[in-house]
Design goal:
There is one protein chain. This protein has 8 helices and 7 strands. With 230 residues, it is an alpha+beta fold. It has a 5-stranded antiparallel sheet with strand order 6-5-4-3-7. The two termini are 33 Å apart.
């Protein structure tokens, strides 16, 4: 979690609490150490956020404090609503959860006149046709991309032929009807796109690969993307 997000969450937790919240409680909620909470609260207090209390006692947010409203146009608000709903197509539970959290955060700080447009925007987004991946954790796969970690998969092609591969996951490609992971395949010594629903087992390896200052992503991005392949 970025520190800016954590500072925002501390304010939200304190705002919603009926009483004193200890550093240990905040640390447990945000999955950090109490020492980190002490530093974060000190930062918020230095920024004139009216938090009363101290380490070892607990914290409360004085009544009446509110974050400044975000200045969005109605089109921007509807874009946020559409984007969050489209995430439901991705069959990625963690991303879906994150989208709902974003909506909740934005709704909290929007001016009252725009909140209805975000929460009940009159826009329908279809669920899409992508198949849910059963044998790969999508959050784990995205983390491997961020961390440049090699990934071992057992994969079945369109004819059901199974192969074991070590891949270097580079990017996710989300289509309405299929989700792909773009990767360098050690078995084929070339770029390949793998349909996530055809992955039969997977494991993140300890070994890292070199992104070469983004070269792998640039070369993969230059490949045709008109039709899903894998």
């Amino acid at each position: 979690m970025r520190r800016s997000d954590r500072l925002f969450d501390i304010i939200q937790i304190l705002r919603g609490s009926p009483g004193v919240v200890t550093a240990a409680m905040l640390a447990a909620r945000l999955e950090v150490t109490p020492r980190t909470i002490y530093r974060d609260v000190a930062t918020l207090q230095a920024r004139r956020v009216p938090i009363d209390g101290e380490a070892g006692v607990g914290y409360v947010l004085r009544k009446g404090f509110d974050l400044p409203p975000l200045m969005f146009s109605i089109d921007e608000v509807e874009a946020i609503a559409v984007g969050a709903r489209m995430v439901r197509r991705l069959r990625d539970p963690k991303l879906q959860e994150a989208a709902e959290t974003v909506l909740a955060k934005v709704t909290t700080v929007l001016p009252e006149a725009l909140r209805t447009s975000l929460v009940s925007s009159p826009i329908f987004v279809s669920e899409g046709d992508a198949v849910t991946a059963e044998a790969v954790d999508m959050a784990e796969l995205r983390a491997a991309i961020r961390d440049s970690r090699k990934f071992h998969i057992a994969y079945a092609d369109e004819k059901g032929r199974r192969s074991n591969r070590t891949i270097w996951p580079i990017a996710m490609a989300y289509y309405v009807d299929v989700t792909l992971v773009g990767a360098w395949c050690e078995l084929r010594a070339d770029y390949r796109n793998f349909r996530v629903e055809r992955i039969q087992s997977s494991k993140v390896l300890d070994e890292h690969f070199d992104q070469d200052n983004g070269r792998l992503f640039r070369e993969w991005s230059a490949l045709p993307k008109e039709r899903p392949a894998g």
